[in-house]
Amino acid sequence: MRHHARVAGFETHGLRVARVGVDCVDVDRMIRFWSRALGYEVARRGGDTAELRHPASAGPKLLLRQVRKLSPARNRLQLDLYAVDAERVAGWLATLGAKRVRRLESNGASTEAGYLLADPEGNEFRVITAGPAAFTRPFV
């Protein structure tokens, strides 16, 4: 485990892909597709979202988000990145060309603290403060 933390902390600039979000019109249909395609299982299902994960917690989670209709003007795919320190990482990413869209405040289980950023072409992604423990354990 120590080697894994060293690799994640230093060789990836303290970032880890935690979750990939996908907008979809029919969440149940997408659950059937992605669970078969990836061998993932439903980790959480509630309202208009479902979160799928690998049975052994290997790799990032897949978050399916229901939308009324798909819009080409909006991101349909969003990366959520874990960082030991989202403030520091957001600043570093800004030097690479990312733009801060807004600060994310934690409101319990549904939203984690960090930043919503946009890459140089405007694709939004989140950098979430997860602390060092996020790099020394499997994806949970």
From TrEMBL:
Residues 20-128 form the Glyoxalase-like domain. CDD domains: VOC. InterPro entries: Glyas_Bleomycin-R_OHBP_Dase, Glyoxalase_6. SUPFAM superfamilies: Glyoxalase/Bleomycin resistance protein/Dihydroxybiphenyl dioxygenase. This is VOC family protein. It comes from Frankia nepalensis.
